[in-house]
Write a structure and sequence with these properties.
The protein is 41% helix and 22% strand. The chain is an alpha/beta fold and 656 residues long. Among the domains are: 5-262, ANL, N-terminal domain (Rossmann fold); 477-655, GMP Synthetase, Chain A, domain 3, CATH 3.30.300.30. The strands form seven sheets. Strands 4-3-5-6-7 form a five-stranded parallel β-sheet, with helices on both faces. Strands 12-13-14-15-16 form a five-stranded mixed β-sheet. Strands 24-25-26-28-27 form a five-stranded mixed β-sheet, with helices on both faces. β22 (477-478) and β23 form a beta hairpin. α9 (210-223) packs across α10. The longest helix is centred in the middle third of the chain and has 22 residues, at 302-323. The chain is globular.
């Protein structure tokens, strides 16, 4: 029988952590939200009261033990509270990606059998109503923002504020029932169900227990000495395990404050205003910020640009060593101090990173050049390696042992082994319970001893014990001549350039590698404006001869870098094309967490791949696209295919 809170009095559930925080740090800020340009705060006492009122309201509405409650919307305190309120009722919260189209939501809602949906606004309510003809399990929809919903049928549609008011009014009648349900929550009961991004097929529902989340939150918080004084910005998708572990798991364990920005357009401003001390972002966010910085420097005056280039060159040389406490000469320290005064300090302040004490990136491999750029500024950016199935944490980088080419050492309580094929396996207290309604996938991923197959290829360095990830195991292959093929390694190097947003490299079982490139419309558009180049669309700009020439320079520079790695020198890009459209999650080419879905891209753009390998210099293509309103359309283009210079590693060695 599951250990219960009543029996042990231990901190074995998120509601138990909430009760402790309200008791021990009741006056401390727990959540902040910016709305209409004003920050509002809730203490732990106020947060506890809001969550309890909502939980009582959900009971009054009929939420039963074991129900699944879907939560859809951007990061807002009330939606985080909804997850905890659902747990108090003995129900399971299931956050969904807010940018998912109705069809994607339909699969998740039907698969988990959600009876209740808590949605942020009219847009999300409309999606749920649209799919109710084929998804019959949803009985009630609760909305946070009432704008636009006044004339809807409110028979099964309820304002969250009204549900809370009902809970407060019914507290005398419902208090005992709620307390009984809270006290019955066990350490091995389900805390949350999160759906995987589905790079290779339908998303799977990952069942994570209270034990998984709390043990992972506790171990990771102790690893980086996180405490109640931290400030974090909650802006990542609520359906992503990273956001759940930081904003709920670690947030409730340590008692730190979770800050919710006003919206995507105000993110940069809100980040600067909060000045987080603990910050997490996937590589795409760090790439975008770096692109913005580089664009601004292109527009800067000659002296300002000289200052930036001069001090950044010095920062790359000594910044990481200073951060790690390694010896640096007095002259270099003084020059770095000057650089901090004139460049690094103002730059970190502009980015909102002035107070970051611990920063992490994960979700995808980050390009070493991008990683080193941030560390050279004195930002303690580290890499972690994790999965939804691990409650995030598999490896972490200890301070003083941070490198761009490894993902660190096993986290507290984590064991790692590499099998004969090179695939990484792990087991830990954070290992998931099961894939919901999918015993076959559970059995193929997790064995009887609790070892989980990651699907990633890697090795453990001798001497340091650090794990190095090469690529996804299914993506690592061999060139026709037997040399190693690892596309992600090259793609990350390409994405270091501000002009390149995304890249997909091909070459498995081939004589040479080729690539699709997506330009970054912001960066390239800014360049076009400075050079008085007119363009009417992404497609027109992507096909401009000067843009193609610039991309070719980037590809050839990457080739020179790749040639220096003896193991991966065969991955140089011989031919490439710039795609006529951005790869898009709505078109199925990326996951909602912005990971490339290689198999779908290979099938969808089969004609373009053939042209890259048959010697063609151009190719006409037609592609189906999905517009923002859900309509389908078709775009056509004739794409130029270019050859890129490659370096013969053998010739280089001979010359030396």
């Amino acid at each position: 029988m599951a250990e219960t809170q009543a029996a042990s009095g231990a901190l074995i559930s998120i509601p138990a952590l909430l009760a402790r925080n309200a008791r021990d740090m009741g006056d401390k800020a727990a959540y902040r939200e910016k709305e209409f340009g004003i920050w509002q705060s809730w203490t732990w006492t106020e947060t506890s009261e809001e969550i309890r009122a909502l939980a009582l309201g959900l009971l009054a509405l009929g939420v039963a033990k074991g129900d699944y409650v879907a939560i859809i919307g951007r990061n807002r305190p009330a939606l985080y509270w909804s997850m905890v309120a659902a747990q108090m009722c003995g129900a399971v919260p299931v956050p969904l990606y807010q940018d998912a189209v109705a069809e994607e939501m339909a699969y998740v809602l039907e698969h988990c059998g959600a009876r209740f949906v808590i949605a942020s606004d009219q847009e999300q309510v409309d999606k749920v109503i649209e799919i109710q003809e084929k998804v019959h399990c949803v009985e009630h929809i609760i909305y946070l923002d009432p704008r636009g919903l006044r004339k809807y049928d409110h028979t099964k549609l309820h304002a969250l504020a009204d549900v809370q008011a009902e809970g407060r009014a019914a507290h005398e009648r419902m208090d005992k029932e709620l307390d009984d349900r809270i006290s019955a929550i066990g350490y091995d009961d389900t805390c949350v169900m999160l759906y995987t991004s589905g790079t290779t097929g339908r998303p799977k529902g990952v069942v994570l227990s209270n034990r998984n989340i709390i043990e992972s939150a506790k171990a990771s918080a102790e690893f980086d000495d996180l405490g109640p004084g931290e400030e974090v910005l909650a802006y990542l998708p609520m359906a992503w395990v990273g956001d759940f572990i930081f904003s709920i798991g670690q947030g409730f364990w340590t008692g730190f404050c979770v800050n919710c920005p006003e919206g995507e357009s105000t993110m940069a401003t809100d980040l600067r205003e909060i000045g987080p001390t603990y910050y997490f972002a996937p590589p795409r966010v760090f790439e975008t910020i770096l692109t913005t910085v580089m664009i601004r420097m292109e527009d800067a005056g000659r002296f300002k640009k000289w200052l930036f280039d001069t001090f950044m060159a010095h920062a790359r040389k000594v910044g990481p060593d200073l951060l790690d406490g390694k010896p640096v000469s007095a002259g270099d320290k003084f020059k770095y101090w000057l650089g901090n005064l004139f460049v690094y300090g103002p730059l970190k302040n502009t980015m909102g990173f002035s107070r970051v004490r611990v920063g992490y990136t994960a979700g995808e491999a980050i390009g070493p050049e991008i990683f080193d750029f941030y560390r050279s500024l004195g930002i303690n950016l580290k890499q972690l390696y994790g999965q939804t199935e691990a409650s995030v944490f598999i490896t972490l980088q200890p301070d003083g042992e941070v490198r761009s080419d490894t993902v660190g050492v096993p986290g507290p309580g984590v064991e790692i082994r590499i099998d004969d094929s090179g695939e990484v396996f792990y087991r830990s207290p954070g290992v998931f319970v099961e894939y919901y309604k999918n015993p076959e996938s559970t059995a193929s991923t997790k064995d009887a001893e609790g070892w989980v197959a990651t699907g990633d290829a890697g090795f453990i360095e001798e001497g340091t014990g650090h794990l190095r990830i090469i690529d996804r195991a299914k993506d690592v292959g061999k060139m026709a001549d037997g040399r190693l093929f690892a596309p992600k390694y090259v793609e990350n190097k390409l994405k270091f350039f501000p002009n390149i947003l995304e890249s997909v490299v091909f070459g498995n079982d081939r004589d040479y590698c080729t690539a699709f490139i997506n330009i970054d419309l912001t960066a390239v558009g800014n360049w076009a404006e400075r050079n008085n180049i007119a363009y009417a669309s992404y497609q027109e700009l992507a096909g401009h001869p000067k843009v193609l020439a610039a991309v070719q320079e980037h590809v050839e520079e990457v080739n020179r870098s790749v040639a220096e790695d003896e193991m991966l020198s065969g991955c140089q890009v011989h031919r490439f094309l710039v795609l006529h459209k951005e790869l898009d999650a709505d078109d199925g080419e990326l996951t909602r967490t912005r990971k490339v879905r290689r198999r779908i891209i290979e099938e969808k753009f089969d004609d373009l791949i053939k042209a890259l390998y048959d010697g063609s210099t151009s190719i006409y293509t037609e592609t189906e696209v999905t517009y923002e309103d859900g309509r389908k359309g078709k775009i056509t283009a004739t794409l130029e295919i270019r050859d890129a210079s490659v370096v013969d590693p053998g010739a280089k060695v001979a010359a030396e």
